[in-house]
Structures are given as structure tokens and as C-alpha cells.
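Q: How would the C-alpha cells look for this protein?
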Amino acid sequence: MMRYLLATAALAFAVPAAADNHELPSAEAFAATHAEAMSGAINHPSRADDRARDQYRHPAETLAFFRVAPDMKVGEYAPGGGWYTRVLGHYLGGEGKLVGLYFDPASGPFNDETQQGIRAGATGFAAKTAESTGLPAANFSAFTLDAVPEGEAGTFDRVVVIRMLHNMMRWNNADSEIKAMRGLLKPGGMLGIVQHRAPAEATAEYADGSKGYLRQDDVVGYIEALGFEFVGSSEVNANPADSADYPEGVWEMPPSLRTKRDDLKDKGESDRMTLLFRKRD
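A: Here is the predicted structure in C-alpha cell form.
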């Protein structure tokens, strides 16, 4: 997988500090248009325990950069603990639709028990999200990417992949998973990625996903090679205080603090790239 990643990285264009496609409204204009809906989502009482991380994860600014509107059908890849799920659930809770996209259980190094757990997570997503948001379970659905229900292909406006691409690289399933997500998107639909960022000068060995970090140019070239057009990048989730060179990787940074280093406790969360891609015809 990483040999393919590094080979395709040579195809990547230089990544600007921030860029918007001229066919799209600016992220700032988009945010202003949907400010009321986003404020309601961000400030909902069900997010009381989540809100402390907003200063590091910038959900409002990130979703504005991804041009996620409240009436869209949005897939969230690997919903996990539900931090972004709660934001999206309330933001899309009126006219929109949130769908949990669970990875293909047979695509990675998962034993039978783990595979069953992945399928159970998809089955229980709607009920779990309804419980954590207070919204109707009918607002939500989910499926694994090896079992896409009939009629779902080509119906999604956006798919978001939040801090998961490194795992896909480690599990050697990034190709198949990204291609499956591409199949779900409408023509011109967009893929938004937030990912821990390695320095441009980091070695390929360090930035292969095993430490949680990837190089930005590598990611852009890789996603382009899988049938996407690069729309732009944002520095909204950047953190210059993260040197991204830790022996045990990103998990030494907050909130994991695996090695309990005192010098990292107040550094915020990892430095992150925020990238937007459009599905090519």
C-alpha cells in the first residue's frame, strides 16, 4: 500500500496553504449562510462533554470548508465514539441525512470477533446516535462498505473521513475503502479529509501511517489517483506546536498522552491537514 502511495505522490500538485475552487462559495461565505444551523448544532446540550475539544478540532470551520449544507446527505466514515456524529446529527437533523459508513470487516486484519463487532456497530448506529443526540433514530442509517444497500450508490453529497486515513494505510484497505466511498458520491460530490500531518521532510517509514501521521503531498496525490480532483486545503486544523516526530507517534499528543510527557500536555492536539476533493467523472 505505501509503495503505491509513494509512487502516486509523485503525481501530486503543490498544495497551497488554502485554496477554494472558483465554482464554490468561499468557506467564509458558506459559514455565514449556514451560521444559525451550525450554531444550533455546536451549542446543543448533548455536546456538553464534547465542547472542550472544539478549540482543537474546529468542527464549524471544518464543515464550512467541506461545504456541508444542512440539507445534504452526508456519510461519516468510521463514526467511532460519536464526537463528530453529534455535530453532524444536529446540523443535518432537519432536512439532511447522516449515514454512518463502517469499513468492510473483511478488508483489514480483523479477527471474526472484531468483524462481528464492526457489523454490530453499523446495525446499532441509528439507535446509538438517537440516544446520544436526542434526535429520532429515523434521522440516521448506517452500513458496512462491503454491503452497500441497493439504491445508495451515487446519492451522497459529501463523505467525510476524520483522522482515519492512517488506519486505512496501516490496514492496507485504503484503496478499496476510498473507491467504495467514491461510488457512493453523486457526480461532483465531495470527499473531505482531516488527517494527522507529518512534516514534508519526514521519512516515508515514519509517515506510512504506523505513527498516525501522513505527509500532505502524499495524501493529495494518492486520493487524486483514486478518481478525485483536488479542490483545496485549509489550515484551520493546523497546530505548529506539534513537531510530529514522536517515537510512539501521534498517540503521545493529547488527548491520548500515551507516554504521559509533561511537555506535551499543553500542546493541543495534533497538527492536521484539512483537504477537500471532488469526485471526477
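The chain has one domain: 2-279.

The first helix runs from residue 2 to 9.

Upvote if useful.
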